[in-house]
Amino acid sequence: MDAGSCRAGFGILRMWLLWILLLSLLSAVSGGADSKAVTTTLTTKWADTPLLLEASEFLAEESQEKFWDFVEANQNIEGEHDDTDQAYYDLIVKKASSLLSSIQLNMMKFALSLRAYSATVYSFQQIASTEPPPSGCSAFFSVHGEKTCDAEGLATLLKTAPQKPKPYLFKGDHKYPGSNPDAPVVILYAEFGTADFQRLHQVISSKVHEGSATYVLRHYSANSSGKKVYLSGYGVELAIKNQEYKAKDDTQVQGEEVNATVIGENDPVDEVQGFLFGKLKHLYPELKEQLKELRKHLVESTNEMAPLKVWQMQDLSFQTAARILAAPAVDALSVMKDLSQNFPTKARSITKTVVNSEIRREIGENQKFFKGTLGLQPGESALLINGLHVYLDTQDIFSVFEVLRSEARVMEGLRSLLIETHFIHDILKLNVQPADSDYAVDIRNPAISWINNLETDHRYSSWPYNVQELLRPTFPGVIRQIRKNFHNLVIIMDPTQENAAELLSVAEMFYANNIPLRIGLVFVVSVEDDIDGMQDAGVALVRAFNYISDEVDSQSAFEAVISMFNRVPIGGQLSVGDVVKVLEKRFPYVEVSSILGADSSYDSNRKEGRAYYEQTGVGPLPVVMYNGIPYQREQLDPDELETVTMQNILETTSFYQRAVYLGELATDHDVVDFIMNQPNVVPRINPRVLSTSRTYLDLSDSNNHFVDDYARFSTLDSKAKSTAVANSMNYMTKKDDGYIRPVTFWVVGDFDKPSGRQLLYDAIRHMKTSNNVRLGMISNPSASPSAESSHVSRSIWAAMQTQSANNAKNFITKMAKEETAAALEKGADIGGFAVGGMDLSLFKSAYEGPKFDFLLSHAAYCRDVLKLKKGQRAVISNGRIIGPLEEAEVFNQDDFLLLENIILKTSGERIKSKVQQFGTEEDRASDLVMKVDALLSSQPKGEARVEYGFADDRYSAVKIRPKEGDVYFDVVAVVDPVTRDAQKLAPFLLVLKQLVNVNLRVFMNCQSKLSEMPLKSIYRHVLEPEVLFQADGSFSPGPLAKFLDMPQSPLFTLNLNTPESWMVESVHTRYDLDNIYLQEVENIVAAEYELEHLLLEGHCFDVSSGQPPRGLQFTLGTASEPVIVDTIVMANLGYFQLKANPGAWILKLRKGRSDEIYKIYSHDGTDSPADSDDIVVVLNNFKSRIIKVKVQKKPDKFNEELLSDGTEETDTGFWKSLTRGFTGGGKTEDPKPEKGDVINIFSVASGHLYERFLRIMMLSVLKNTKTPVKFWFLKNYLSPAFKDFIPHMAKEYGFQYELVQYKWPRWLHQQTEKQRIIWGYKILFLDVLFPLAVDKILFVDADQIVRTDLKDLRDFDLEGAPYGYTPFCESRREMDGYRFWKSGYWASHLAGRKYHISALYVVDLKKFRKIAAGDRLRGQYQGLSQDPNSLSNLDQDLPNNMIHQVPIKSLPQEWLWCETWCDDSTKKSAKTIDLCNNPMTKEPKLQAAVRIVAEWTDYDQEIKRLQTRVQEGANHTGKQRRTDAHSEL
């Protein structure tokens, strides 16, 4: 070895020695405990659901065909994989991959990781449990309510089934394809993938093929595993607490046995202060332990969170952005995630970053742009996916997942139509959704009898005539009286219907009050010639009306009609007698029979009225139209009609003002002509065409199949069949020019039957008027195809195949006529109908050919894809299916015109202009327009996409380019990296990037001149792109939030940030999650949460008043247990919420006053038909569910109020129903003492210290109060330890308790700080937290000690005020400087009144609800809380601020003594002592309690002794199950 290499070797040795020295030094420095961590998991209450079933539900959303293909392929997978979780998962992915594209497969993996369909699978399990399952069966059939689990039993049940009613099927049910709809319904409850399923599935599917059953599959697992489902899609924050007042309990917590594997060796944050530990461990495996020590020391030295000076904070937002932008694009998102989520620990090092001027300049430029296009201020954020706004703060991950999925569908559809990638995003941005423009019909028709005419009648002669009057300024809401027929109301009615009188009385009210409204009537009565006015009241009315109009004038006729209806009793019908009486009185000398009898000459408009009604197609009678636009059914209620009409007059006035201003309307124009020439006026309104619930064919496919090969056609799936039909279609058009036609009609029918020919004839007549239309035909034969039964269909097909377009068109027009068909049936030669220029021999050879393949294919297509019965008619316009049309339903030329109008207006022209840019030839281009329209229009209606051409992204944006050639998502994020939005957005974008191909731009939107720390919390967002496994192939525990290497000095509070409709509770943790102090923790704080409920929210209105029915109660339950939970409707937005879980639930009005006074009128967003009495709601996913319910008072209860001061609520029946626990579901308890003898006390607490105070407060109440007590606690924030202990305490001291819960409504301004949320709960929801039977509630703060009997407070006379509070003491003079209410805003607002303390108050709930105090408080809170500086003590400032609207009764001072504000001399008379914070001394609570309250320590010791006994008992009996059988609100 030469000297050089020897020297080098020595150098390496010396470096090693240095390393070892350094590391041993470090291990001496920080040889303390291991690094600390916090982990959080959230599981469901229900047991784990098999991933195989979840995957099937994902496929069901693609299509039922795919669901059943998947089920068939996986009937029994036992033995198809080795028993590891990973092999099971891989098998599912492999089986699904044959049915899904690669993007959709990634989506499925994400859905399985999110467990998004676990709720869907479990909802079927809950439905099965209500059957209930027969014993000893792991899978069973239910046939119309009878159950069996073997094949023989099924055959017997099928025979007896028809006598029993069919079961209720839900929207999410899986019906086996080809099921006979008239056969009995067999529901199979089973878990597919098992042998039991396979056996029963084969039995029932054979019955379906015989046509003897309809088969529905519902998931059901007989034996569930004990594991729970781990959820993701939520955020966890560790917020740093203000330690100004020490609020930590000093009771020691024993450490927990924690699964230590959660903290992996491969920590995701690899780099600490420039050392790359992943690399170092890899290079020097033998130094693993020392490297661990070095890393720990470095972490702790960076994590120390010494406060920053204000000048250091100013630029933090820009500095963080600069740090992110400096990273390579691949890592930028990870850097953003790390910096924003761990910001408090990173801030000090970020302050050293230099920001270059280009970044600042470009951000400044872009901010002007963001403000203009997106309305964003600096520091605000936005996320756009393909131009769709995604709101991360209100939209949960499950709805974002839906957006991704539907976008992927559309982009893949466009891709499979062979459209190039860069055009795809252009097409996506087209807004093709049907606008809610209201279509109108023409009211210039002689059939309408006008009562008045504003332009010519004498009574309006004093009004101005000039349209310029519209532009004269007036007060808002004033209706301008101008002598022009601007506003026209037409009532089309059958005089013998019940509500005719109501409608006419509204019209009379308008007329009598000189509202500028022209009123017209159309009477729809019998048009039979042999029916006269002496037999039929309707005909009598028309004749009488015409007679008086002729003799006198139409106003008198109108008045006479009103008199006739005034004679009709309420709920009765107009009779001939009523008409005769009025005529005799008004025209005593005229022979009535000459007017009404058979020879009457007063029949004008009788036939015309009905003809006008039928021709306009406006729907069921009565119909009211404003300027030709029909009102909705629910707007026909008299009060509603008045309101809506006035509103329309005001809204239309602004439309006219614009027209006058722009010179489109002048005084000499006919106003009615002007209205009727607007583009929304059509000759006929067909509700079928205008309906917003539309179904579309899936035409987004390309293949080379045709209908003339039936054998091949019959094997294709629905999508491929539609494509084959489109491939084979030949079209008729107006001209033979090369023109792209944006509208394609397919007429479906049996053209060998008159109804089919009529439809075709009307379509051809329309096609000849418009060059935008192409017309194709699909035969749906009534009988199985034969040469005799298909003359016309075959001749049409042959002509289209063999003749030039023009000849074919003329020939087919002939074929559609009735006389042609009649002649052909008699055996006439088809050649006789040929038109000039036809190639007859070619036509004949095609017509007489032996193959009917096209007919067979068309028939199969109509049956399987269009779901039509034989011979039924339909129209398909650009892929939208209108039909099946009823036997006698009219669908004429006007309807085709309306259809064409709608397409051109919404989508046709826009898509056509894009397709023109592709430069494809005309036929293919017209096809593309049709297919793209069907694809885009079938998407659920969302908001419009944002068009953006972004400013500069050179210096201030993170850019990730998509993989070439693939479909990509265009994602734009605008974000300030030091906001909560960035903490959520970064992990979401990282997952999105792994899921799909993205073109991603993240623009920085920084704030300058920050004056405080922008983020005071450490945050984790729990989200994984796919299911994770451990090394041994089992599922990895989780997903979970990990906070590793946490700083140990601060005090943290842990909060969960979950989707709006989730109610979660903390379970199994000994640590105080409100006060996490890591220095005192052994190694890990493992917080476990459980999803306790999914919320069902709703809004309820009374249809008569349009107001929310305050105090109305709903219950939710099942058929066997009708009341599981209940709730009260708020006046704010008529809001209510019910706690439920996945499954099918029945919503009802609560028995008692609610269902005595009200009945349900209609409901929306539910799962049962709108007219059914029982409202069924199926909760089968994790997304928010919001329903709308309308109620109506029963006729005999019209004047009764729910919240009356009557005595009915004291009746024991109601109170007894309550003692089951307000929400039912609890055990029936012993009869309670009479309600007058129970004192209800409400309190809230969070954190172990306040729970300790709360127990002592309860003990002090119980020691001093002789009357029985019931405590009500807010459950949302109680620790598991408190919830476990409270039943033991209740047993020991003999009190009742109930845990109440309410989720903060999404529409009410959200608080972010836990303490402020709890304050909000003290005051904002008093009217809905407790049952109506509780009429007085006392609130006692947790840190209070009671020294008297609280019965005195409950019985205190509030003198009509809804609540009583104690004013703040003023006797301790040295605190004057801290009495903020003595000066400034409060002094002027209170105007000499007292400022009250919120630690103790009494609420008269009856009065509180009656004056809607809760609604007023929430309204005021909503206004004030938008300002972060108002309501600093929310629970106290709000009632004091509202003192003028909701009066407060001041309680005597001795009810609350607190050392901070009251002097020592008043202490001896104190009835309660409150441990207020002292702003002068900042004394810790525990210390103050021991010093101020002599009995506090004794109470504390007494409870500790009970806790020890309970603990020993629990240890003695092993892990005792929770005994709390209480049900919660």
**Could you tell me the radius of gyration in angstroms?**
38 Å
- Sketch the major β-sheet: 8 strands, mixed
Count all strands and give the number: 49
Helical element count?
Answer: 50
Query: What do the pLDDT scores average to?
Result: 82
Assembly category? single chain
Structure description:
This protein is 38% helix and 16% strand. Helix 42 packs parallel to helix 48 (1434-1441). It starts with a helix and ends in a 13-residue tail after the last helix. The strands form 11 sheets. Strands 1, 7, 29, 31, 33, 36, 38 and 40 form an 8-stranded mixed sheet that branches. A hairpin with a 2-residue loop joins strand 23 and strand 24. It is an alpha+beta fold.
Please supply descriptive tags for the structure shown above.
1529 residues, alpha+beta, seven-stranded mixed β-sheet, 50 helices, 49 strands, 38% helix, disordered N terminus, disordered C terminus
Compact summary:
The protein is α+β, with helices and mostly antiparallel strands.
